Design the sequence.
């Protein structure tokens, strides 16, 4: 399963704290996307996470959890993505909460189901940047340094450039992908049309489409382009 | 060279900010220790680091740098140990300074010469604990969680339990070593006699002897026991 993420080009990220109708969920899950990621920055609980998992499990596609809080660790997902916020000013978002989670769940963790992500938060005005106190005002060389830290020092399997709500600098995203030798590059932020999906797919290994699902389902579905 | 650390059982750590006579340095370098580590928490500069490197280089044993500040990155060492302080409350000691260093030196770095260490600071009263604002008051399960974070999430080649100035809990050190599957376990702190060296060698893969060099050279040399 761990290796399957290598083949993911497009994923939808569903936020357990947001409402989605059965009809919209059905269209998302049968859209041809490669996987569903369940996760969000705020308001994520055990209950709303397990509810969403149960609804997505009716479909055949992979369903993975991106863990943002220890309270919302729910068994039964195919994989667990573990964000390591490389540009946070606070230790808790890089190792602190992770240590707590490993302490609490350590004995029962199937290590092969964990996928640590070297997260780089790049939109200063986003909820995730404020929450993690990220040093998000990074230049080109800073972002490349984050990617090298993620892959060369920490040997994380995924590097994730998160522009959260804003469409990023695709030249920089492409440069990061060309810098990485082993890691998979995830890109997220502002993908709200087929055109932007194509641009992001040309720059990153895997694109993550989130907010637009809740704003305009038709445009969200259009991001599932040929790839 | 990277793989050579696997065979290290005993290393001396020399602090560039402390004086050592040629005679004492000669005895340290011909003691039978496996390597010399150059590094310290405070007062480390480019000049005092390169001076010490030049003096140690007259001997045949490996000489490696443990980087604590970007100003003291000196070319010419066999390896560069990069502490990642897993239990720091401040992002700068886990990823922040590392990002700066990778930004500054990225293009000329031979990645294979870098050895990131998952550092766990365990003496609350030490200089390194205050400097890094480490959450050093850890229970047994917290330390095991740090080791798993170091090896399973970050895949760091070395996990380093640093009791800095205090002789640690050898039962816990042994438990950490038994938890680790791939990483090398370094132990440092309070090794000031042959007896303590033997106890630490029975618990860790590699023991690091530092302060006693500057307090009592005879007892420092006694720590190079049969192993």
Sequence:
């Amino acid at each position: 399963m761990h290796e399957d993420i290598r083949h993911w080009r497009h994923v939808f990220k569903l936020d357990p704290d947001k409402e989605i109708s059965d009809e919209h969920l059905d269209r998302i899950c049968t859209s041809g996307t490669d996987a569903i990621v369940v996760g969000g920055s705020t308001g994520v609980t055990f209950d709303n996470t397990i509810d969403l998992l149960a609804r997505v499990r009716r479909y055949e596609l992979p369903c993975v959890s991106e863990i943002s809080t220890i309270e919302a660790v729910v068994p039964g997902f195919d994989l667990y993505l573990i964000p390591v916020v490389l540009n946070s000013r606070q230790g808790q978002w890089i190792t602190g909460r992770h240590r707590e989670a490993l302490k609490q769940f350590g004995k029962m963790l199937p290590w092969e189901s964990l996928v640590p992500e070297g997260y780089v938060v790049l939109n200063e005005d986003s909820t995730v940047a404020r929450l993690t106190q990220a040093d998000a005002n990074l230049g080109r060389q800073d972002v490349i340094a984050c990617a090298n830290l993620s892959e060369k020092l920490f040997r994380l399997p995924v590097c994730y450039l998160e522009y959260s709500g804003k469409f990023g600098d695709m030249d920089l995203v492409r440069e990061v992908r060309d810098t990485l030798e082993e890691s998979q590059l995830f890109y997220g932020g502002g993908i709200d049309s087929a055109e932007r999906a194509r641009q992001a797919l040309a720059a990153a290994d895997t694109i993550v489409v989130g907010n637009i699902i809740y704003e305009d389902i038709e445009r969200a579905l259009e991001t599932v382009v040929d790839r």
